Amino acid sequence: MSSGRLRRAVAVQLAVVGVAALAAPATASATARDTQPCPDGSPDGVVCTGGELADGTPYRFVVPDRWNGIVIVDLDFASRAADEPLTGRLAERGYAVGGTTRTVTGWNIAAAVDNQAAALERFEDAVGRPRWAVASGKSMGGFVSAGAAQVHPEVFDAAVPFCGGLGGAVGQWNQKLDTVFTLKSLLFDGSSLPVTGIPADTGQATQDWTSALAEAQATPRGRARIALAAAIGQLPGWGLAPDGGATPKPDPADPDAVQEGMYLALSGGAQPYIGQAMSSRRAIETLAGGNPSWNTGVDYSRQFAAASTEQRRTVRELYARAGLDIRADLRTLARTPRIPAEPSAVEYLEKGIVFDGDLRIPVLTVNPVGDQISTVAQQQSYGLAARKAGKSALLRQSYLDTVGHCTFTPEEQVAAITVMTKRLSTGRWADTATPRSLNRLTESAQDAPGRYVSYRPPVFNRPYFG
To answer: Domains of the chain by range and CATH?
Structure first.
């Protein structure tokens, strides 16, 4: 019997013990057979183990003296500061926490997914077999943890992806192509601003795009067309300030506020969408040996019609003010020559990864509604895939009413991990993954309200299931 199947068989037997007992620290201290000095700032009462995987990727784990038998495996753990608050919060509750880095694999998602399983194997060699192993992480780490759940269900027992691009590698980059293609076609046709084939100097490409968009934002016509591109690309109408601070949530009935939010998410705020559309696409095109995205056959009129009521109202109001004809611009988009993908590049990107929904272990996804990088509509695509595969019972999806990419508090993350622990211990979700339950867990550990909300994401406009 494989270690994953053995752990799940043991989990069934242990379920009768109850959530409280399983979440409590183990009675015996954890003893690692291959320890190393813990970095300065590590939580008190832990031992550390780590090293390098076969491809040179570093890995590290922190194990509390009173380990509860659960280990969290995260793509980015080994590159984070030892005093990162989430590590301390989880270690206090008895969780072992660890994982790898993206420094070697980058956008080679397939390799990063396999590295999570390899790191867990090293953990088991050094510390012992965990009761449960949970893949988790934020951003690319969330993407990779969902990938680990799909590729290595015999190794991991659950996954909690935070703010991952769960439209899949192909789908999410097709969506980003739509946004940048619309901007280029309507605002900067004939310019040298890249859409695909991103040059090596991605910093300069980002600066060129940012400057051009700032000029466009200063005019009524520019603001209208930025809003249309954002609506087609399913960006939020809510963005972080340039200094990274949270902005007030725009009034949906205020088109100027919604458009400003779109612009901040796209280019004007912290961690802008356009920057990732340059730097990450360059990295992917280099690895894939060409462009893996396409918009052949895409009807942008249909994509605009599928945008939220708030965004459609904003676009129409701004077009009217600017004296523009939205139907004429949509016809322009329809006539603009499309961008084909290189089949070999698509084949490469499919490996990293297409989410098919065939879940074998429980998964709890967590995403901000105002995330400008891992757009929230991608969560709908992931849920749809699970429904088509008949695996919805294994999936719960949760949302936070917050702006920006991966803008969670440590307590909000711990709440999600706690819910997954209850799911593993009881074999059922019950009402544990509801916003009320998640907020109750959050608020018990922080002096601020929880931000989990009931939310239905828009239908992802570039689904790709292979």
So the answer is: 3-167+355-453 (3.40.50.1820), 169-348 (no CATH)
